[in-house]
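User: Can you recover a sequence for this backbone? Please restate the input before giving your answer.

Assistant: Of course. Working from this structure:
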């Protein structure tokens, strides 16, 4: 089976080529065609339905990959933007341009995100991905219609969960020590 997959990939490369000129316009980027042999095989942009957001997401992913970030990190960022796209398309939100993303909207987003996220780590990944995405748009001047105040800050990340203590409380330890000092009957 591996032979067939490899043969298919080679024939496809001969037919359509490889590299950024081939992959960038696609909605699913094949990492092998970009010379990346990592665990994540594809980056899928199909869930980003707004054309203005799709182009920014692809530009950001391209920048991440060409500056040496891992495909897994880039994949996590694309998932965050995909979540943003679905959220922006909701009838109660209905933002249809980048200029509509302001601090009040981001506050609503963070509230909805907190309610929807089942796992703490996924919540952190989405907030981190969106923060990096918004920062890159500002930093590289990709779209000046995004308000300068539309950013996420470290205090916007979910607070770390409180860990259980590493040792036993003094009251429990005292009981254990007292029970250990009683001779067996």
């Amino acid at each position: 089976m591996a032979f067939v997959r490899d043969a298919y990939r080679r024939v496809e490369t001969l037919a359509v080529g490889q590299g950024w000129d081939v992959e960038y316009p696609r909605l699913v980027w094949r990492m092998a065609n970009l010379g990346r042999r990592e665990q994540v095989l594809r980056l899928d942009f199909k869930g980003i339905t707004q054309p203005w957001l799709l182009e920014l997401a692809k530009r950001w992913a391209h920048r991440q990959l060409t500056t040496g970030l891992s495909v897994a990190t880039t994949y996590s960022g694309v998932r965050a933007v995909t979540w943003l796209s679905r959220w922006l398309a909701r009838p109660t939100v209905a933002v249809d341009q980048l200029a509509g993303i302001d601090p009040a909207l981001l506050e609503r987003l963070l509230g909805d995100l907190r309610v929807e996220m089942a796992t703490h780590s996924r919540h952190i990944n989405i907030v981190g991905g969106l923060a990096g995405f918004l920062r890159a748009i500002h930093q590289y001047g990709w779209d000046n219609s995004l308000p300068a105040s539309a950013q996420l800050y470290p205090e916007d990340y979910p607070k770390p969960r409180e860990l259980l203590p590493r040792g036993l409380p003094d009251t429990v330890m005292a009981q254990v020590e007292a029970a250990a000092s009683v001779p067996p009957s």
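That completes the design. The chain is about 55% helix and 5% strand.
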